[in-house]
Design goal:
The chain has 14 helices and 2 strands; from the N terminus they run αββααααααααααααα. It is an all-alpha fold. The chain has one domain. The longest helix has 28 residues.
Length: 328
């Protein structure tokens, strides 16, 4: 517990201290996000916030490596690959397939260290599910980075739930990594909550999505059946999953490519319905917390309870998508 707290505080401190430096570096080197019709900011914004998030989280973990098993090397290597691809995308605007290739390389590194889904299924299905989950959540968190403070805050709430569940089940590597993410997200929010002074860019959003997906699939609940507990990370990361599903359904209905940027995310729709940007972001924090609490409940649910909850949430999610996206 003391080690996890120390990791959290170090990640928080390193991120807060480094943000002003990386902000100046971004402005000097042209790592900026220029205003555009589909974007909410009106002045160029520095994009290297993700470097501070990555640095704060990883340095905090490295400082306490002796407390962790050797698998942490594979985790850090895979995260570095994904973050580097995000950094290149922030600079050069990479095609989607290149970013997906980077995520696949990160997945292969994890597979070499035997880090993957381990459900009672054929091995090729476990590997397939692992990659789909890692890539899906990485891109969902990337999609969610569309309003000041949103992606970092939602990621921080999700990391806090994973940290607590890791501690409850004596998974100190999972808890330590989640604490590093939680601390880095809080440190970044000091400069990213509206009005933002810096953006995380794809460096930060892809890193956060990848590590949260990784931590979610590494959670273990020996007191309950995996036939039920596989739902836990789905609920913890339910908000980015819902937002991405809403956007894909909406764009396909309108005959638009899902990869096309636009102001049709859940956050944008809340603002269109009268919420301020701050109110919309805080409401989505609250929904992330509520979804995470459902995930905590599922850790001790019976099979019947688990699937009743999962089915109910699917129905509610479908109804919400229909309501939010029905033609005017």
């Amino acid at each position: 517990m003391q080690t996890v707290l120390a990791i959290f505080l170090m990640a928080l401190s390193v991120t807060v201290i480094s943000i002003p430096w990386v902000r100046r570096l971004a402005l000097r080197t042209g790592f900026v996000d220029s205003p555009a019709k589909r974007k909410l900011h009106s002045t160029p914004m520095p994009l290297l916030g993700g470097v501070a998030i990555f640095g704060g989280a990883v340095l905090a973990v490295i400082a306490f490596v002796p407390a962790f098993p050797n698998t942490v090397a594979g985790v850090l290597l895979s995260l570095t690959v994904v973050a580097l691809v995000g950094l290149l995308d922030d600079r050069y605007g990479l095609p989607a397939w290149v970013k997906l290739t980077g995520q696949f390389v990160g997945f292969l590194i994890l597979a070499l260290f035997d880090i993957r889904v381990k459900l009672p299924l054929p091995e090729f299905l476990n590997y397939t599910i692992t990659f789909i989950w890692l890539a899906g959540i990485s891109n969902a968190v990337n999609f969610l980075d569309n309003m000041d403070g949103l992606s970092a805050g939602v990621s921080g709430v999700a990391a806090a739930f994973i940290m607590l569940l890791g501690l409850q089940n004596d998974q100190f590597l999972v808890a330590g990594l989640a604490a590093a993410v939680f601390g880095a997200c809080l440190g970044f929010l000091r400069f990213n909550f509206k009005p933002a002074q810096i953006f995380m860019g794809d460096t930060g959003s892809l890193f956060l999505g990848f590590i949260l997906a990784l931590l979610g699939l590494q959670l273990r609940f020996p007191a309950n059946s995996s036939f039920v507990t596989w739902m836990v990370p789905v609920f913890i990361l339910g908000l980015p999953i819902f937002d991405t599903t809403l956007v894909i359904v909406s764009r396909l209905r309108r005959g638009v490519s899902p990869n096309t940027a636009g102001k049709d995310h859940l956050s944008h729709r809340l603002v269109q319905r009268g919420f301020s940007q701050r109110e919309a972001v805080l409401l989505l924090y609250l929904l992330t917390g509520a979804s995470g609490m459902i995930g905590v409940f599922v850790t001790e649910a019976t099979v019947v309870e688990g699937y009743l909850i999962f089915g109910t949430m699917l129905l509610l999610g479908g109804a919400a998508i229909w309501q939010l996206d029905k033609p005017a």
